[in-house]
Write a sequence for this structure.
């Protein structure tokens, strides 16, 4: 809808710290493990 | 001895066939009929479409795998199902027409005791004049389409290197398309490539979608908790679009694609056009051209298939308003009510209704994403059909049938936003359940504990891991069945 462009224009931008964290190898390795754990939880739920 | 015929060798059909080989006795037969000789890990086609992967990295030959697993393989197109056989031939059978170059056009009838319809979608480019590789836009639905898209994108990047401005449009080619996630991924991968090529300032990238708002993804959007607050995939996605400078047009139904111009109608009733230099627009899906006949040869296709061409299974297909939709409307065993020995899984089954709220423009044009049922749900359904068939073969009428409704099934999705081991990124998402259940989870319809989203480099690593893991699994390498669907 027409609102979409306006919504995008005023959407919150990530801070420089967040952007750095998204690329930081150490942090991202930790997130890699955490997200995989979350995904495995969904799979385990499925298998039950 | 039982004979199981699987129509389709995509994620659902291939998963069903492989599990059947380990669940059934050696004396039972597993047959796969699929028009393609290759298996394709479709989620990675977006990387082929930006030149980051080659076709042989996302596809492999099915024949050798099936030979090794003892599966009878017919490279052919199923054209008709006869669930009651015909006079003098009581056993059910399917009619197939070979696409195998050695037997092209040859027609054969294959008997079955159990049938799994996993024929996937027909890419309905014809629904929008000018849409698709035979028209004026590109697609990434198949590896071959993605190769063409990559070449055209590269040509556009080369023009930018010469100083020309380019408009790159990515999105949905019809108001009822599904797979918004794939278009989202491709838009951000295009942005990433253009950025890497050093010509970002010369590219206007436009995401054109049938979603009412960004972040809908055909599942009505997601709500999840982040730092103590509930947030939505809408806000999260809008933020990403702003950060990466991608323009978004939502609630759009593409009416026509002409040379360099896409014309579309929006939910507010306006008719607009957008000039482009490169366009990747996904087609809507419909069921493959499959008919059904009863014992007397009467056409029963309307009983077995919805008008969309998808097969009707154990769902509630009665027409009712959005407010009355319930989780129980969704199928749980994917069996055809009149013929419980026929299963339809993956994209092949007819969903009872959309997941996102359906909307119409003032002129009555339906602009509503169709429910996604690819990837993880497809694999789960394929395995479910195999499990239930194995049970039915072993225990007959007393078999305990298992269920896996999309209203009681979770999904993990990783939407790439750019590739590269150091500079890639992706949005990782989980949702539970796929179809919201407002009775079980009042408010959002989903478990807030099991629904989440996050953007970062780790998402790219996960998508890459899934790429290699699922190709390993599909090749039926040692321990393949331990890898979850």
């Amino acid at each position: 809808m027409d609102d979409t462009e306006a919504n995008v224009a005023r959407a919150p931008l990530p801070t420089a710290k967040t952007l750095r964290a998204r690329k930081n190898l150490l942090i991202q390795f930790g997130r890699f493990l955490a997200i995989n754990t979350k995904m495995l939880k969904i799979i385990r739920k499925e298998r039950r | 001895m039982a004979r199981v015929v699987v129509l389709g060798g995509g994620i659902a059909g291939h998963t069903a066939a492989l599990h059947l080989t380990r669940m059934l006795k050696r004396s039972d037969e597993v047959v796969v009929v699929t028009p393609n000789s290759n298996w394709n890990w479709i989620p990675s086609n977006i990387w082929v479409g930006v030149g980051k992967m080659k076709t042989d990295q996302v596809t492999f030959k099915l024949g050798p795998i099936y030979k090794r697993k003892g599966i009878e393989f017919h490279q052919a197109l199923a054209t008709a199902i006869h669930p009651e056989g015909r006079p003098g031939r009581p056993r059910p059978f399917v009619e197939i027409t070979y696409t195998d170059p050695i037997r092209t056009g040859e027609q054969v009838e294959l008997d079955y005791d159990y049938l799994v319809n996993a024929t996937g979608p027909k890419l309905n480019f014809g629904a929008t004049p000018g849409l698709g590789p035979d028209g004026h836009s590109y697609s990434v639905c198949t590896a071959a389409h993605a190769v063409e898209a990559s070449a055209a994108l590269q040509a556009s990047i080369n023009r930018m290197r010469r100083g020309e401005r380019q408009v790159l449009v990515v999105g949905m080619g019809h108001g009822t398309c599904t797979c918004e996630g794939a278009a989202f991924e491709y838009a951000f991968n295009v942005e990433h490539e253009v950025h890497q090529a050093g010509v970002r300032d010369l590219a206007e990238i436009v995401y054109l979608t049938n979603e009412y708002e960004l972040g809908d993804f055909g599942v009505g959007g997601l709500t999840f908790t982040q730092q103590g607050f509930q947030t939505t995939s809408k806000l999260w996605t809008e933020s990403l679009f702003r950060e990466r400078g991608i323009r978004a047009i939502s609630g759009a139904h593409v009416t026509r694609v002409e040379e360099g111009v896409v014309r579309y109608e929006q939910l507010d009733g306006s008719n607009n056009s957008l000039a482009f230099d490169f366009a990747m627009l996904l087609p809507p899906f419909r069921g493959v051209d499959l008919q059904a006949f009863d014992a007397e040869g009467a056409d029963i296709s309307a009983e077995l298939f919805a008008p969309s061409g998808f097969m009707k299974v154990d769902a509630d297909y009665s027409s009712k308003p959005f407010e009355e939709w319930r989780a129980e409307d969704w199928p749980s065993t994917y069996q055809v009510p009149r013929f419980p020995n026929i299963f339809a899984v993956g994209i092949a089954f007819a969903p009872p209704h959309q997941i996102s709220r359906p909307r119409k423009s003032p002129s009555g044009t339906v602009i509503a994403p169709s429910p996604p049922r690819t990837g993880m749900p497809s694999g789960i359904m394929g395995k479910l059909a195999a499990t239930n068939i194995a049970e039915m073969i072993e225990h007959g009428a007393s078999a305990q049938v298992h269920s896996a409704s999309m209203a009681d099934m979770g999904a993990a999705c990783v939407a790439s936003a750019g590739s590269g081991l150091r500079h890639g990124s992706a949005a990782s998402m989980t949702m539970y359940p796929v179809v919201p259940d407002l009775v079980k989870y009042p408010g959002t319809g989903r478990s807030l504990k099991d629904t989440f989203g996050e953007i970062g480099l780790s998402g790219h690593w996960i998508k890459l891991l899934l790429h290699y893991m699922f190709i390993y699994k599909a090749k039926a390498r040692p321990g393949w069945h331990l890898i979850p669907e």
Observations:
- The domain at 3-123+286-405 of chain B is CATH 3.50.50.100 (FAD/NAD(P)-binding domain).
- Chain B has ten helices and 25 strands.
- The longest strand of chain B covers residues 72-82.
